[in-house]
Amino acid sequence: MTDPILVTENLEKRFGGVVAASEISLSLYPGETVAVIGSNGAGKTTFVNMVTGYLKPSAGAIRFRGRDITGSTPRKTAQAGIRRSFQISQIFPQLTVLENVMMADIAAADGKGGLWGAALTKPRMDRGRAVLERFGLESHADTEVGTLPQGVKKQLDIAMAAIDDPALILLDEPTSGVSVDEKIEMMDRVIDPLKGGGATLLFIEHDMDIVTRFAERTVAFYEGRILADGPTDEVLVDKEVKRYVIGGVHA
User: How do residues 123-137 score in pLDDT, each as one tens digit?
Assistant: First the structure.
């Protein structure tokens, strides 16, 4: 059997007396697309923040490609090959789409050299345009990001996370703020190029139509713990998941 790319063992995060996550043990395997579901406050983003270095676990361990990365900084975690997007897009609204992608390229390359001196090179611009083409954003290359629709901003945020083809990409509510009519189309535009780059994907999502369409495996969180983990079609009909997570409505 293929070795897991990511393993978390009994992860726990406490904020004073509040337990935000407890006993989170999970293995992700190369090439998987996994959805994480749960109500607000269930521990989903806390889990992603611990894996990506934005929160230090209170207990437990994280291993990526067999190496212990528990407590690593976000920068070191990203350089190891784990990238993420955010529920609120982390983009520069006054820069163009291409400039945003080049900024992400600088971060992926350790940020060596002067900021714009490092950015304005032909190889970096070529890489940036290649990423935009891959994600269907080339027509927006010279557009100021602040003027773009929300769905395109989210698409750009995810494209920036995919710079350098990381092994694992974690998407925090990729369709948040995107209109119902745009969600499926936007996910189609990002999932295919991400999978084409060979990434293992984990995404947090509240829309069960998105989960059903794009995730072969689903992990359900409830009160900081994993309530269920398995094939999506099985998890979504689990009695406890229907009761505590999706309220009996698979829609």
Answer: 778 888 888 999 989
In whole angstroms, what separates CA 135 from the centre of its chain?
A: 16
Structural domain spans, the chain:
6-89+164-244
Q: Are strands 59-64 and 217-222 parallel, antiparallel or unpaired?
A: unpaired
Q: Is the pLDDT of residue 119 over 60?
A: no
Q: Residue 89: how many CA atoms within 13 Å on its side-chain side?
A: 26
Tell me the β-bridge partners of 144: 96
For the chain, the first-to-last Cα distance in angstroms comes to: 34
Tell me the pTM.
Answer: 0.86
CATH class of 6-89+164-244: alpha beta
Query: Which residue has 């969600």 as its token pair?
Result: 183
Describe the crossing of helices 150-161 and 180-196 by its angle, rounded to 10 degrees: 20
Question: Coil, strand, or helix at residue 140?
Answer: helix
Q: Tens of pLDDT along 34-73? A: 999 999 889 999 999 999 999 999 999 999 999 999 999 9
